[in-house]
Amino acid sequence: MDERYATAVTVADFTRNAAAVRLRIADAARRAGRSPHDVTLLPVSKTVPTDRVRVAIDSGMRMLGENKVQEALRKHGETADLDVSWSIIGHLQTNKARDVASFATEFQALDRLRVAEALDRRLRAAGRTLDVFVQVNTSAEDSKFGMPPEELPTFLEALPSYETLRVRGLMTLALLTPDDARVRECFSLLRALRDRAREDAPDLIGAGELSMGMSGDYEIAVEEGATCVRVGQAIFGARSLPDSHYWPEG
Known about the structure:
By secondary structure, the protein is an alpha/beta fold. Helix content is about 40%, strand content about 15%. The protein has one domain (about 10-235): TIM Barrel. It has helices spanning about 10-30, 50-60, 70-80, 95-105, 115-125, 150-160, 180-200, 220-225, 235, and strands at about 40-45, 65, 85-90, 105-110, 130-135, 165-170, 210, 230. The strands form two sheets. It has a six-stranded parallel beta sheet with strand order 2-3-4-5-6-7. α4 crosses α5 (about 115-125).
């Protein structure tokens, strides 16, 4: 368990933790000559019991991220009386596409056309659309999901066929390493891929958002252009298992 992150239990705890993260986001943005308003904070509630998730929502959180579809679906049902939306940020198997299509507001880990096809079919049946980020493996680790960078242009060209999917940008996971320079390389590569897509095929990249950065590296991500950071432990508190249990995902 990471002792840097105290467990949030009360509304005051969540408010304080989220404010501290937003302050660090703002400082990182200013260091990069950016506006803090250009960065969205996505609190990630994976493994957090629903009673504490409800308190987080009471503190003002209106969208939460979850890695596992079944956990997100359960929490969606258990918080149906509250004003909250859900973002699926983890790898998706095609047999879970129906669940995602039934309730999620966005999906941040699109990396296969089979998943795009399954989501589109289910979304059409449900009369819904879904915001999506395309996941790119910028760390070149075999154990991570996400497509190789060189496959991104072809993948983006295929996505307009799936009319229920609204591409908003790209997502990545950096190396889990204390070497900040290597982490930064992962984020700068995603930004370069986004910039190249904007030049070559601007209609295919949507708003060109960049979802990158977690509790341990979100400040570097903001300095490198992140428009969305996915922060769990720094808001909710340390998990019983280290990040290495969840990332890499494979």
